[in-house]
Amino acid sequence: MALTEKGGARRRSRTEVLERPEYGWIWKPLLALLVIYLVVCLGLGIWWSRTPESFDVEQAVAEQRGEGSGSPAARGAVTTAGLMTLIETLLEKPGGYLRNDIAPPGLWLDNMPAWELGVLSQARRLSRSLPAMEQSSAPVLEGVQERLMGDSRDWLYPSTEKRLEQALEELDGYLDSLGEGGGAAFGDQGQGLAAWLEAITGTLDDLGLRLSASIGSRDELRDLDIDADALPARTPWYRVDNVFFEARGQAWALMHLLEAVRRDQADVLASAGVTEHWELLVAELERSQRRLWSPVVLNGSGFGIFANHSLVLANHMVRARDLAREVTEGLAEVTPTPAPTASEPPVVEVERSEDAAEEAPADEGEGEMPASSEEEPVEEAATDEGEEAMAAPDNDDGTEAQAVDEQAGDSGEGEMTSPGGEQTPAEAAEEGSDEASSDDATATEGDQMPAEAAEDGSDDASSGDATATDGEQMPSDAAKEGSADASADEDVTAEDGQPAN
């Protein structure tokens, strides 16, 4: 019995193991595969994030022209070949074009896609300026511009890579037309060059502001020529590296395009006297491409233990902006300016018409100013004379009182009358001085004390000047006139032969 039960138990256990196996061991190989996948993605991400090396524009021309590199080419071949090399770099660098990736590891990367956006931005800007640089009509350049202006994140058909390849094909056909007997060429007077540099100046200024916006304290921008009030909102910490690498990408592309344009427009730059500034501009952009030794973009402050990579790059962008502005001003003097169309008047004439409209109301207001400006000196003169009469010391010398009275009389005679026939403050001052002279003449007929005569003359002169200044009687002036009347009564008593108290 016991043996039968043991045999049945073994059979049941064997059946349960076969029907319900233990899967506890399966997670170990899955975890190993996941670790291997992450390590591979990490290695590819580091490799794909390496910035491509710079290239020689002369060698780029030979590579792009192929078999026709031995024959002479027209003006503009180096610039076109440089633009083509930029687009090829976006497509053929390690990992290809990563900005529109929807799967790892490209999906996890952000530094290299930001760098690609910077390069693509400069390629778009040059493509918009190429039709103006061409001396004849070239519809193929408009097609290139249309291909490059598409969305940089498109991954469905037509994807961004497809449009870049189409732009390369059209540029290759235009480069062939720049060869011997092709008929296409850039203008020999630098047409469109100043406008392109002006747009570059604005781009560099914008990059300087965006890089500086990552700095929390605005006091650190005092050494830079950056308006703190014009800065955009502060860049979040997780997007500081995106702005940094986008600026690096634009500087990398612009460095090669400027070198290519210098080869094509060497005579134009020499005639404008901006060759030296052009070379300094290229050198400043080259310095912005120095190797970044830190694995991450630091955003330190001041002289701390951590560097501020955004502020260093912003310094290079600001210097490049200033140099680009100087080159633009020099080229604007020698390169022809496109004539405005009939529907769009010149900017200078529009500004002048707006200035004239603003100056018209101002001129009407200035015509009403002389009347008040002529009255103000008269009132100020009367006020000054009254203050001098009030400031005259009251002493026992009769000659000083007589001099004060004569001064008040002379100031009243020297004032001008208004042309309208109305009584001006100056005439009121003259009447006040006449009253003061008559009172003094009456007081000198009797035996008058010298101190009282000086008091009378100063009080009357003060009341006359107050009338010339304000035209109204103030409470303080009324008190002065009351004291003057009291003095006059004492003078009359002195004329009758009675002694004055």
UniProtKB/TrEMBL annotation:
Pfam families: DUF2333
Keyword list, A-Z: Membrane, Transmembrane, Transmembrane helix
Coiled-coil intervals: none
Keyword check for Lyase: no
Ranges of Acidic residues composition bias in the record: 356-399, 428-438
Superkingdom assignment: Bacteria
Biased composition range(s): Low complexity: 332-348, 460-471
Residues covered by region (Disordered): 329-501
InterPro entries documented for this protein: UCP029693 (IPR016936)
Regions that span the bilayer: 30-48
Protein name, entry field: DUF2333 family protein
Lineage start: Bacteria, Pseudomonadati, Pseudomonadota, Gammaproteobacteria, Oceanospirillales
